[in-house]
Amino acid sequence: MMKIVNKLIWIAKRISVMSSRELIHRFEEQLYLFYLQAVDLLHFTPCKQFSDTQGFSFFAKADPVPLLKWQLDKEYVKQLLSGKIPVYDSELQWSNSDNFWNYAPDTGKIWPTKFFASIPYRQNNPYGDCRIAWEASRLQHLLALAVFAKDNKDEISAKAIEQIEAQFFSWIKHNPPYKGIHYIASMECALRLICCCHIFGYLSEHFKENQKIQLALVNLISSHANLIENRLSLFSSTGNHTIAEAIGLLYAGLLFPEFTAANKWQQIGLSLLEEQADAQIFQDGGSKEQAFHYLLLVLDIYALAAELLKHKKLTIPNSISSAVDRGREFLDKFNLTGNNIPSIGDSDNGYALSKFMSINWSEKLPESDIATLNESGYTIYNDIKNNFRLILDHGPLGMAPSFGHGHADALSVLLDVSQQNILIDPGTGSYLGDLEMRRYFRSTAAHNTVVVDGLDQAQQKTPFMWSSPYQAELVHSSTDNNCVIRLLAKHNGYNHIGVTHYRGITILNNQVLIMDFLQGNSTHHLQINWNLGTEPKTISDGTVVFDAHETEVKMEFSGGELILNKGVKTPFNAWLSNVYGEHSPCPKISISKSCELPHCFTTLISVDNSASHLSVECEMATLKELIANNHREYFDL
Question: HSE (CB half, 13 Å, CA atoms) of 60?
Answer without folding.
Answer: 7
